[in-house]
Specification:
The protein is built from 4 helices and 8 strands; from the N terminus they run ααββββββββαα. It is an alpha+beta fold. The protein has a single domain, classed as Sandwich (Jelly Rolls). The strands form 2 sheets. The protein has a 4-stranded antiparallel sheet with strand order 1-8-3-6. It starts with 7 loop residues before the first helix and ends in a 9-residue tail after the last helix.
Length: 153
């Protein structure tokens, strides 16, 4: 399997990365904390420094399904980049997490002001979205396909 293309900061040119980091702050989440909920407003995003986060998907009539687990270096959240700016998945800290948090509106402004930064961010986030959609699809087929073994509610 190909490695996940989830490292946003590593994909940015050094000047762009530094400019983006000027608008960040360190945050932490305890194990079990809900970081965001599917369908709610996506107004920030994170790059995980330590710990791990599960991404889950609401499945009507069943428990939420974990579709991917993120680890250090991974981008947490991409819904902030695309209208209507609402989370497509939910996220929960699997272990204590330290992360760098970014204000989505400010980053969108930076991307408009700096086309090099904007293109790099959009391209990398698109790669991450494609990877996550494929992961979610595979996980759901494993769980709910004709021979899936998903727990019943």
């Amino acid at each position: 399997m190909i490695a996940a293309p989830t490292n946003l900061l590593g994909a940015l040119p050094p000047g762009s990365r530094e400019r983006l980091m000027e608008h960040s702050r360190e945050v932490s989440f305890p194990a079990g904390a809900r970081i965001f909920e599917e369908g709610r407003r996506a107004d920030r995003f994170w790059v995980i420094r330590t710990g791990s986060v599960t991404l889950d998907l609401h499945v009507p009539g069943r428990r939420a399904v974990v579709v991917e687990t993120l680890s250090p270096g991974d981008l947490l959240g991409w819904s902030w980049l695309f209208p209507p700016y609402a989370w497509h998945l939910g996220a929960e800290a699997l272990s204590p997490v330290r992360a760098v948090e970014f204000d989505a509106a400010r980053v969108r402004e930076l991307c408009e002001e700096d086309p090099v930064l904007g293109r790099a961010v959009a391209t990398k986030v698109a790669e991450i979205v494609a990877h996550r959609l494929q992961s979610a699809r595979t996980r759901l087929l494993d769980l709910y396909g004709p021979y899936g073994n998903a727990p019943r509610p």
